[in-house]
Amino acid sequence: MLFTIRIGVSVLAFAIAAFSGIALIPYLKKINFGQTILDIGPSWHKDKQGTPIMGGFMFIIASLVAAAVGYTVYRLFYFDVENNLAANGMFKLIACMVFSVLFSAIGFADDYIKAVKKQNLGLKAWQKMVFQFLICVAFLAALYFLGDKSTEINLMFVSFDVGIFYYPLMVLVMIYISNAVNLTDGVDGLCGSVTVITMLALTTICMIIKEYEVSMYAIAIAGGCLGFLVWNLHPAKCFMGDTGSMYLGGAFVAISFITHNHLLMILVGLVYILEALSVVIQVLYFKFTAWRHYKKTGEKGKGKRIFKMSPIHHHFEMCGFSEYKIVITFSIVAIVVGVLSVVLQYNI
Length: 348
What we know:
Layout: H1 2-30, H2 57-77, H3 89-117, H4 125-145, E1 152-154, E2 159-161, H5 166-184, H6 190-208, H7 212-232, H8 241-259, H9 262-268, H10 270-297, H11 312-318, H12 323-347
Antiparallel strand pairs: 1-2
Helix pairs in contact: 1-2, 1-7, 2-7, 3-4, 3-7, 3-8, 4-5, 5-8, 5-10, 6-7, 6-8, 6-12, 7-8
């Protein structure tokens, strides 16, 4: 029965996302909400100038509606009071949804400023960080009141309690990973494809640990992203924008924290994490080599780069990879680590 419900949720989310694009994309074009491409990116990306942004509304609406329908059906036909499967399930589901939507609101503000001012500069970095910090603190507080009071970092094969330091550390992790998902959105179909896979892995993991309600949300996002890819695969008819990528980042973080398995969160989200890490490495190496050059010659701004461009998907573009090849390669990596994560969770 649960398998049938999950399939139904994914199909419903796919249908809503795919068909909503028929009306949403022309509307976004009509109000002139198009992407502005900066000169610092690959030169061929200029062809994407004006492509509608905020297409993320397709899978946002689809996943929220489908998850709500799936949960309702679950409560009607599969609610098990004796095993206490849904004691906090509804509240965890709501917490995940609210967290994701609030992160999406930050992205929407960013997209709106970009669309109105016609530049690739939205909210200031410190503004994003403040809002993200407050939302992450609120989510961890919600989990605490829902019963997750553990301050252990769970790496499956070893766990260690860091006490009160757990919360500030996890806030930093949440902000890093959610923004890592945002950075993955830079090639047509990349973030959507990787997220379909990561959400399928999280769906399976949630089922194994009996977080059935939250699994409805994960599978709904997978279906919604698949429907969005109808419009987002190269050449993209629309972009998800920060509205969509921040929603997906928030959803991935929220669902992962429900499992309270930090190693699996790292494994499942490895593609996102490496994307963000490539940016960190690039910036630090450039600044270090620029500082060293300045000390030797007195010239400023003469740093070196490890990658041709970051995030790393742009490095592969500059090396001659097509957008399809990048999507396929990164998706294969996501599949491998996703399967590994499920196997590890199943065998612990």
